[in-house]
Design brief:
The complex is a heterodimer of chains A (454) and B (245).
Chain A (H helix, E strand, L loop, with lengths): L1 H16 L5 H10 L3 H6 L6 E5 L4 H13 L5 E3 L7 H11 L10 E5 L2 H10 L4 E4 L7 H4 L2 H14 L3 E5 L3 H4 L10 E7 L10 H4 L13 H18 L4 E7 L3 E6 L2 E6 L5 H17 L6 H10 L6 E6 L5 E6 L3 H14 L5 E6 L26 E7 L3 H10 L6 E2 L3 H10 L6 E6 L1 H14 L9
Parallel strand pairs in A: 1-3, 1-4, 2-3, 4-5, 5-6, 6-7, 11-15, 12-13, 12-15, 13-14
Antiparallel strand pairs in A: 7-8, 8-9, 10-11
Chain B lengths: L4 E7 L9 H14 L3 E7 L11 E4 L4 H23 L4 E4 L1 H5 L3 E3 L5 E3 L6 E18 L3 E15 L8 E5 L9 E2 L1 E3 L2 E4 L5 H4 L1 H16 L10 H15 L4
Helix pairs in contact in B: 1-5
The chains are: A alpha/beta (454), B alpha/beta (245).
Chain lengths: 454, 245
């Protein structure tokens, strides 16, 4: 192992010198030493937890890691977004000492569905958390039912505990996959909240009402508050349940006890993902944790990069970056962000590219309802990215005409930012590679948080 | 008569909606409005009675599980769909429903799914998935651009049905004959997503023109497609034609 660690660290240093990516050292080591991953991770006393699903992996991993650290555990995790096995290897090369020791108690890894299976074939994880199955990058996985089968196979390979989203029937199919000695628990929604979180099928079922889910929100919140007393008795104890929430706080039922927290993470799905992270941590620690430090850690978690992350420009204006990568995520982002401050003047830029990591089929844009952008306070001032014209055409079929179309992200961004002082809110929706480009451009003119990506 | 209604029936939106098929319905709807007609969208799901009025029929792709769900209903409404095809009602069937508009689909595990035989084509399930950007060319519609994602390969079984287009770049119906899609009277079948209609307005307008001629004797637009839409469509097509597979 020492040989590979030293070789890997050397490769990393070389790659850095040349300004190259972090993937190469991981690829080389994976080739030379196929059991590198399992040997290194086997050292961790509490083992490995894998977090997977279509939406929310990065945020949930971030929250779960913070929660475990609040219990004085040393948590090894892969950097944001680099959720392939070679990304994990690169992270190990960085964190291990030269003798091959990995000085952590547990690994929390976010893995893309296909790579989660690839990973589990090499390293059987002690824990796995299955978030949701939504259509995403079908050009890679073929069909959404295939994705479900991948998660089923991850569940089969999990050795201790599995946490499932009880609101997603494709995820719930994995219940049957659990080995007899494996404990299965859930995260769930109070019945009144279910309408706010459509499953993939409901998103495409036009017989369901198309009315904005957010607009029903206030009513539902007040209703659940009154009911939460009663609910705590009826809901099963092996689930963590989101009982109610407002813009900045939420109430969860954890081990039969309701807890109130103020949250910095935003967006409907992230608030639900907190329940997922809580239940995973609860399962790992067997319910044995210090509640106060857990809550205070939860209250301090900030949004992951590109999930509503705010960046202040030199001219004093603020930019918000929102990563969009599939129809359900884009639709929910529009619903939650465009409605949360509907009275403020908002300038929007949308950047859509079609590299492999973005998804190459533009069909998905036609499954997103863009009418939330159709209000008097919102201007779509720029559309950019390699598929800018596809995006602009999509908007026009929803009767929204963007002010500018410019497929060059660099110059589009400079137009957008130079105009940013004119509006209190400047929001950029972008696909994965478009976001990397935008962040690297912004890094030249302002201070931005290290994304962990190269 | 002044409202000039055209009814679009969306076939199985609940089970056959794999990727962007709603875009085809939206394209027909919006262009009808731009031409001065009044579109009405009606959904037909496997639990409904087939709508009595139908001027344009649009169906999409599905997963294998979605196809199984609709099989029974599809056989029930087959006579109606065949009658619409024979009468020249314009129809667009993408991917999964394109396959089921043929004679049969033989899956890779040798299961037979009966089609409704509007097209005399058959489809064989294969292990490799054909995925990527595709461009084709048709005498009638000019160049067509889109994205394909299918494991079934489709072959022609007779003379009644013609290919929709020949493949310029990509695979299309199958790995051997360089054809893509099928056309019989005013019914079009294709593997192209994208969604196909917004970026290929010639096909969209063909469906609209046939529907208005069938219903009102002529296609008589009272207004035009907005200039910015025309220009953006051209630009989007230009970008798509230059994409690698």
């Amino acid at each position: 192992m020492r040989f590979y660690i030293i070789l890997g660290k050397l490769l990393r240093a070389l790659a850095r010198l040349r300004g190259g990516g972090s993937a190469l050292p991981g690829m080389v080591i994976e080739k030379l030493c196929p059991d590198f991953l399992s040997k290194m991770l086997l050292q961790l006393p509490l083992g490995v937890a894998v977090i997977t699903g279509t939406n929310g992996k990065t945020t949930t991993t971030r929250i779960a890691s913070a929660l475990l650290e609040s219990q004085n555990l040393r948590v090894f995790t892969n950097p944001t977004g680099s959720n392939f096995t070679r990304g994990v290897i690169s992270a190990i090369l960085e964190k291990a000492d030269c003798k091959g020791n990995l000085p952590y108690d547990i690994a929390i890894l976010e893995l893309d569905e296909a790579y989660a299976v690839h990973f589990a074939n090499k390293v059987q994880p002690e824990y796995s958390l299955h978030l949701n199955v939504m259509r995403d990058q079908l050009d890679r996985f073929g069909e959404i039912d295939n994705t479900q089968r991948m998660l089923y196979s991850l569940a089969e390979r999990t050795t201790k505990k599995i946490v499932l989203n009880s609101e997603d029937y494709r995820i719930m199919k994995s219940t049957d996959a659990a080995k007899q000695e494996v404990d299965v628990s859930y995260f769930s929604l109070a019945p009144e909240l279910k309408a706010l979180f459509p499953t993939d099928d409901e998103l495409y079922d036009d017989t369901l009402t198309k009315q904005s889910v957010i607009s029903q929100n206030t009513q539902i919140q007040s209703k659940t508050r009154n009911n939460s007393q009663k609910l705590s008795k009826t809901l099963t104890v092996n689930a963590t349940t989101l009982l109610s929430f407002t813009d900045s706080s939420a109430t969860y039922l954890l081990n039969g006890e309701s807890i109130d927290v103020k949250l910095k993470v935003r967006g409907l799905y992230n608030i639900y993902n907190v329940a997922a992270a809580l239940q995973l941590v609860n399962a790992i620690l067997d319910g044995d944790f210090d509640k106060n430090s857990l809550i205070s850690a939860l209250e301090n978690v900030t949004p992951a990069f590109g999930r509503g992350e705010k960046i202040t420009l030199n001219n004093g204006a603020e930019l918000e970056l929102v990563l969009v990568k599939n129809p359900s995520g884009f639709r929910l982002a529009l619903e939650s962000f465009e409605n949360s401050n509907a009275d403020d003047k908002t300038q929007v830029m949308i950047a859509i590219s079609d590299e492999y990591a973005d998804g190459r089929d533009m069909s998905w844009l036609w499954d997103v309802d863009f009418t939330p952008l159709h209000n008097e306070n919102t201007t779509v001032s720029l559309v950019s990215g390699t598929r800018a014209y596809d995006m602009a055409l999509r908007l026009m079929y929803d009767l929204i005409t963007p002010t500018w179309i410019n497929d060059d992200i660099k110059s589009a961004l400079s137009t957008f930012t130079s105009d940013a002082q004119n509006a209190p809110i400047n929001r950029i929706y972008c696909t994965y590679t478009a976001m990397l480009k935008i962040r690297s451009e912004l890094a030249k003119v302002t201070e931005i948080q290290e994304s962990g990506l190269k | 008569m002044s409202e000039r209604k055209i009814t679009i029936v969306h076939l199985y939106p609940r089970s056959m909606n794999i990727y962007g098929d709603a875009g085809n319905v939206l394209a027909v709807k919006r262009r009808l409005e731009w031409y001065g007609y009044t579109p009405k969208i009606v959904s037909h799901n496997e639990t409904n009675v087939f709508p009595s009025e139908c001027d344009i029929l649009i169906g999409g792709g599905g997963q294998d599980s979605g196809q199984l769900k609709i099989m029974q209903d599809l056989q029930i409404i087959a006579p109606k769909l065949q009658e619409l095809a024979e009468n020249g009602t314009p129809q667009l069937m993408v991917c999964g429903l394109y396959q089921l508009y043929g004679l049969y689909f033989k899956t890779y595990e040798d299961n037979f799914l009966d089609g409704i035989g509007v097209f005399d084509i058959y489809t064989l399930g294969k292990t490799t998935r054909l995925i990527g950007n595709i461009t084709t060319e048709s005498d009638r519609f000019g160049k067509i651009v889109g994205y394909e994602n299918h494991s079934g390969q489709t072959f022609f079984d007779g003379k009644k049905t013609l290919p929709l287009a020949k493949v310029l770049n990509g695979v299309g119906n199958n790995e051997t004959d360089k054809t893509e899609g099928a056309i019989y009277k005013n019914t079009i079948g294709t593997y192209l997503h994208g969604s196909i209609l917004p970026k290929n307005p010639a096909i969209c307008d063909f469906l609209i023109e046939q529907a208005t001629i069938n219903k009102y004797g002529e296609f008589a637009p009272t207004s035009k497609i907005p200039a910015h839409v025309l220009k953006t469509t051209e630009n989007a097509r230009k970008v798509a034609f230059d994409l690698p597979r």
